[in-house]
Amino acid sequence: MSGARDGGVLERLAAVQERIERACTVVGRDPSEVALLPVSKTRSAAEIEPVVAAGYRSMGENRVQEVVAKAPDLPQVSWTLIGPLQSNKMTKVVQLVDQFQGLDSLDIAEGLHSRLETAGRELDVMVQVNTSGELTKSGLAPDEVVDFCQRLGEFTTLKPVGLMTIATNTPDQDEVARCFSQLAQLREELRQGRVANTEWPELSMGMSADLETAIAHGSTMVRIGRAIFGERD
Questions:
Q1: Which one, of 97, 98, 126, lies nearest residue 203 by Cα?
Q2: Do 184 and 217 touch, CB atoms closer than 8 A?
Q3: Bridge partners for 97 per DSSP
Q4: pTM here?
């Protein structure tokens, strides 16, 4: 009966959890090392509620306006913004978002920092890296990452917690693996250099189609939308 009431969301959520556990077992990792971030873009608050009730208090969104629309109905949710951010949306981010996984511009860093100082709060951020090299994707080129991250120490309200990437959308798992491996190597370089005086604990990589490959290459957070909420209209 629950499947009928929730549109199958909880069944699909359990299947994703099983995929994560199996992927960790294959490579000898503890499943507790990999967080699941449900991505609820285009979904209503009512569609998200079963996942929240199942114990997930963090949700990912790609658009600030969706956070604005859903936050009043889901006060218990901690919102993560994924992807590019326009300057005119920064104030709402500072008000409503707890983590930003899309930082790839010093102008955005400066704008957020200024507003965060005024608000008297801090924001966890992940630096987005374009490991695929596709012009349609946001993110820094891999050879820009270290210099960029070194500059983040100037913005004391921004707390760098890791790196994020979106792999090439291809059935070629070798190419997908290359994207994830490159992000892991960059994270190791940042760690060894103690860049921005942080351990860079998080690697946000892996989505519905490639979470197993991401986990095999060290992902600590997979961002799952379709495999939980079903195909979008």
A1: 126
A2: yes
A3: 79
A4: 0.95
